[in-house]
Write a structure and sequence with these properties.
Length: about 375
């Protein structure tokens, strides 16, 4: 069978499988609320890492990938969702320092936190570093210990809000530094300033929250919330027809992405032409076939896949992965990175105003 025919056949089978329903649904195990937040992606085989055009970092080859069914969040994680995670850690740390425990030695959430209590002084910004004169919690003290590919690592989970200044050398973005993550005005905007370790921490926390809300007597059921792999992310974006030709005059843009400059160095699309200069609230544009929003543009999204895995390079034992794949492009991206098969490679500890994440959910029996 010719290669083109094989590819079409596999794509047809994958498309048809969309009508299939998962056997063990989130609703069946008492997670109806979570089922509303995610979309089901069926098992499929497809061509991964396929893109049009070229970029200095695009020296990797397409390949066939097979991905088992999973759920993926319909939208990028928002400031409101991530703030809930940060506040959980902040408050649980305070309760622990104040010895607010039940008889079962679990945190007693019913007790009120007195933030002026001297026992919480270790959570506060030291007086020599506090320029406001007010008692304030030190974001660096809001920490979580993650399992970083087999290595425990304690990290600060608070977003790096200074990315709004570092990413823009000649712009006045101080209001975004102060308001973007903290103010309710930006509740439904995607959280940014998050490195991959912080995204992993959120997923670990959400796994715990989901498992505690399970309403099934079957103790063999395990629900795992994680970042998607590159193949999983592309499987969810598989229905999009990729093209870098998005630049006709008078076009109504369906994604939030960056400038387009033609061969004569003339700008034919500016940042704000799609309706937003920076990020947009999630679900601002029409959803795709699986009910997913912003798989192209708005913010690029972290995956668990390293550059070495994409390049098929061998990773020596004991050596930690350092560069990871981000997918989908962001509000500042060229059309090239809006393609599902295109990859951006970013250091694990790097955070930017154009990178966020979404999560996948796996339901399985132990």
């Amino acid at each position: 069978m010719p290669k083109s025919t094989t590819t079409f056949f596999l794509a047809f089978i994958s498309f048809c499988s969309n009508a299939q329903k998962p056997g063990l649904t989130l609703e069946k195990i008492g997670l109806k609320y979570l089922q509303r937040e995610v979309s089901y992606i069926p098992t499929k085989t497809f061509t991964s890492l396929s893109y049009n055009g070229s970029d200095s970092l695009s020296n990797y080859r397409s390949r066939y990938s097979s991905v088992k069914s999973f759920y993926i969040s319909k939208a990028e994680v928002t400031n409101r969702e991530y703030r809930e995670f940060v506040y959980y850690i902040r408050d649980s740390t305070a309760h622990s320092l104040l010895a607010h425990f039940t008889s079962a030695n679990t945190i007693d959430w019913s007790q009120k936190i007195n933030w002026d209590d001297k026992q919480l002084a270790g959570m506060m910004i030291s007086m020599e570093n506090n320029y406001s004169g007010k008692k304030e919690i030190d974001p660096e003290k809001i920490t979580w210990t993650i399992n970083y590919f087999g290595h425990p690592e304690t990290i600060s989970v608070y977003p790096d809000t200074l990315t709004w200044i570092r990413d823009f050398k000649f712009s006045y973005n101080e209001p975004l530094v102060k308001k973007y993550f903290a103010h309710e005005e930006y509740d439904n905007y995607p959280v940014v300033g998050i490195n991959i370790k912080q995204a992993m921490a959120f997923c670990e926390w959400k796994t715990g929250q989901v498992m505690r809300s399970l309403k099934t007597k079957d103790t063999s059921i395990q629900v795992q919330v994680e970042l998607p792999t590159n193949a999983e992310w592309e499987s969810a974006a598989f229905e999009d027809r990729d093209s870098t030709l998005l630049s006709t005059k008078g076009k109504v843009y369906h994604y939030n992405f960056g400038n387009i400059i033609d061969g004569n160095r003339v700008t034919i699309k500016s940042y704000k032409d799609d309706g937003y200069f920076y990020t947009s609230p999630v679900k601002s544009y029409k959803a795709g076939l699986y009910g997913l929003y912003d798989m192209k543009g708005n913010v690029a999204e972290w995956t668990l896949t390293s550059m070495e895995e994409v390049m098929n390079a061998e990773v020596k034992a004991g050596r930690q992965k350092s560069l990871f794949v981000a997918k989908g492009g962001g509000w500042n991206s060229t059309p090239f990175y809006l393609q599902a098969g295109a990859c951006q490679f970013l250091p694990a500890n790097e955070a930017h105003s154009y990178i966020g994440f979404r999560y996948v959910v796996h339901v399985k029996n132990k």
